[in-house]
Design goal:
This protein is mostly beta strands. It has a single domain (about 15-269), classed as Exo-inulinase, domain 1 (Jelly Rolls, Sandwich). The chain contains one helix and 17 strands. The chain has one helix at about 1-30; strands at about 55, 80, 90, 100, 105, 115, 120-130, 145-150, 150-155, 180, 190-200, 200, 210, 215-220, 220-230, 250, 260-269. A hairpin with a 2-residue loop joins strand 14 and strand 15. The relative contact order is 0.21. The model is unreliable at about 5-20 (pLDDT under 50). It binds magnesium ion (MG).
């Protein structure tokens, strides 16, 4: 009788193991992210927290119907890309060598690029499109990024039906805040970011007096409204103000995915 009982107890565990393990794997794949990263200052979520709620998905409609289309640069704006060349940009070895064709430029695996000019407070308009052919998942799908002052990333990612950690999805303040909603268009469709940024201010003691503040409008929808950066952007760490950035270029990230950009202009504030 005793032998029979232990046999009964052992069998279910053996039977369950192959069922439980793939289920756990599936869950990790469905909700990518981390559970072992440092806590953000809000004390609620970790950096790249896989358990953080996904922002609601909203359909922004086609770009042609978006207010202001085709988004001509306003008076006093500096055109950073007019559809022809990357002469306002610099990259590895001093040259921005991303591909330029048909009025847009595209990330090639040659490193990130930066504007030659540095900026403090500004309004930036930039349009981007993730590859029409979907390849990869989570952070490996249509990843690039807009680096304000070369230091604060507004994430570029194909977030159309592509689960990832919310503070790393399209239009997130990377590693800090998810966008209010997911306003991503389909892969291959052109999308807009209108970013109003005010630089951090530092006191004579070198400490941050006023954090950097950003408003991000994605495809005509405000997804961050005058939100303060916790600090400069990092991966798997809490951002901080150790770098004391007060001006810097607009940087675009080479994350190995052929993301396209067009119609880039900036107006100093
Ligand atoms: Mg990125």
């Amino acid at each position: 009788m005793k032998t029979k009982l232990s046999f009964c107890l052992l069998i279910p565990a053996f039977l369950l193991l192959p069922i439980l393990l793939p289920a756990a794997d599936k869950k990790a794949a469905a909700r990518p992210g981390y559970a072992d990263t440092p806590m953000l200052p809000d004390g609620k979520w970790r950096v790249h927290d896989s358990a953080r709620p996904y922002p609601k998905v909203v359909d922004p409609g086609p770009i042609e119907k978006q207010k202001g289309f085709p988004f001509a640069p306003p008076k006093g704006a500096i055109v950073l890309f007019d559809g022809k060349d990357l002469s306002k940009w610099t990259g590895k070895g001093g040259k921005a060598s991303w591909k330029v064709e048909n009025g847009y430029f595209e990330v090639t695996r040659s490193g990130g690029i930066n504007t030659k000019e540095k900026f403090k407070d500004f309004h930036l308009h930039i349009e981007w499109a993730s590859p029409k052919e979907v390849k990869g998942t989570s952070q490996g799908r249509g990843n690039s990024g807009v680096f304000l002052q070369g230091a604060y990333e507004v994430q570029v990612l194909d977030s159309y039906q592509n689960p990832t950690y919310p503070d790393g999805q399209a239009a997130s303040m990377y590693g800090q805040y998810p966008p209010e909603v997911n306003a991503c268009r389909k892969p291959g469709d052109w999308q807009t970011y209108d970013i109003t940024f005010r630089s951090a201010r530092f006191g004579k003691d070198g400490k941050v007096k006023k954090p950097a503040v950003v408003t991000v409008v994605h495809n005509g929808i405000t997804v961050h409204d005058k939100r303060e950066y916790i600090g400069t952007s990092t991966h798997k760490k809490v951002g901080n103000y150790n770098r004391k950035v007060t001006e810097g270029p607009i940087g675009l990230q080479d994350h190995g995915n052929p993301v396209r950009f067009r119609n880039v202009w900036i107006k100093k504030l």
